[in-house]
């Protein structure tokens, strides 16, 4: 090994220079030698030869992955990546060399990278903010720790430490302006679930009588690491993506493991539940993997849990859940008799009871989960959302406070932000709470939506437009909002008197909606967006026709992610004023709409001059 063998090579797209500089500075401050071309390399043939030589002799190669690398399908950094992959062909598989780092919300599945990169663990360094845990990990690898080192417990502790330290480095209280820089399931699926549920118990386990292979042992370790990530209370996107990657690796080694298919199905189900990936394909993956788990080991704890988790989390049709609620409930109670303190079983049971409206059972299960060390933050957060869904806002706010005291992670912070806005009517508290969000969460669609919504509530058009300009996509999808980002841009332009700019934004948003309607023409969520945008563009006759179709499909049922006041605002916009007031009254009776909502919701602005609205406002006062 030569003198340069302890250096780390950073490979990146030029657009990411500022973020990569932060990574380099942090590594150098911890005593690590870093090579990257900002200061040390020159152009021309000599530059090319020097890069080749450094890639050939460096100890670790860190490809920095981002939206910028995805956007550039050609670039010198891709040559660097290929050279690094070529070098691995001559290396022992246990020798660490590739250490991919992601500096924004780019996903594993969506990244345009060599497949070799997907075989190793990725690290997330939002905006280049580099925590002490990452520097320590680099130093351990340079000191000779192999890729096969570490137990599943060590693995998950390292992942948790990375995220915790990233939060402490990035989740500072910053003004709103800093947010800018940071940041219908097919019927066949339900039918398939019914057929699968009824046949699963009749299938016999496929037992292996031969000796345990080395591949099986390796797969067991990967599965254990994936399961450990599932037991991380924050359940962030990057943790589920890492668990998915580990399951893929395990599947290549041993696809006969019931444990593998159960854990993998759970990864898919949680990805759907948090709306990180709500596609029909991901839902079907959750179902088929649970089916495989039950087929291989029908009496296994995890296989049975994966089966009911799919129905409770990933098959979000309320009628489908109800059809299997009795057996799902029975199975979960049996599982909890076997393992009363299993956090996954408790959480799935609590969520099923919540969805079925069995309030006391849901509350008790959440409290039981909170008693398990490390799960209080998640448990009280989910209890808070459940109380919010039940219309018990005082209890929801109390649960939010307990969640914040236990662990301030993305979901507990959003819950407290929601309560500050829609229960307390305190915009300043909502902003102060949201400002504590980690940078990685601000890059998720839920974080982007809340930043936009807070700017909209504050009538801050400049912040809204700056946020829109900073987001590299035109559609947001989360449990809190699904729709075109152009809606916010158009509204901000309109508030500033920019009629032409507003129209352009709304027209672009309408095209986004129509493209999605081509795939799911009966989607009520998309149809109501079409109604809104057609109305905003002044095409009232067409909007009225679309609205009639929307009403026929929904038959007054609520939509996924819909807030109580939005339906009232939509009916008012379409000239059905009495119906709009009736929706407000219904929401107030059910506590889905509060005094604070009437005060702050921007969508209710057109209603505020109506005497009936004013009467409701006075009647709902504190």
Give me the Rg, rounded: 26 Å
Estimate what percentage of residues fall within beta strands.
under 5%
* CATH structural fold name of one domain: Rossmann fold
- Gap between N and C termini: 73 Å
With strands numbered from the N-terminus, the spatial order across the biggest sheet is 2-1-3-4-5
**Helix share bin:** 55-70%
Main pleated-sheet profile: 5 strands, parallel
CATH superfamily membership of one domain, which one?
A: Toll/interleukin-1 receptor homology (TIR) domain
Number of strands: 7
Low-confidence stretches at least 5 residues in length (pLDDT < 50)? 146-212
The helix/strand class is mainly alpha
How many H/I helices? 31
CATH architecture of one domain: 3-Layer(aba) Sandwich
In the CATH scheme, the class of one domain would be: Alpha Beta
Any idea what the shape is?
globular
Q: Give the integer mean of the pLDDT values.
A: 82
Protein described:
The protein is mainly alpha-helical and 622 residues long. It has a domain of 147 residues: Rossmann fold. 64% of the residues lie in helices and 4% in strands. Helix 11 runs parallel beside helix 13, helix 13 packs parallel to helix 15 and helix 28 packs antiparallel against helix 29. The longest helix is centred in the middle third of the chain and has 21 residues.
Could you give a quick summary of the protein structure above?
With 622 residues, the chain is mostly helical. The protein has 31 helices and 7 strands.
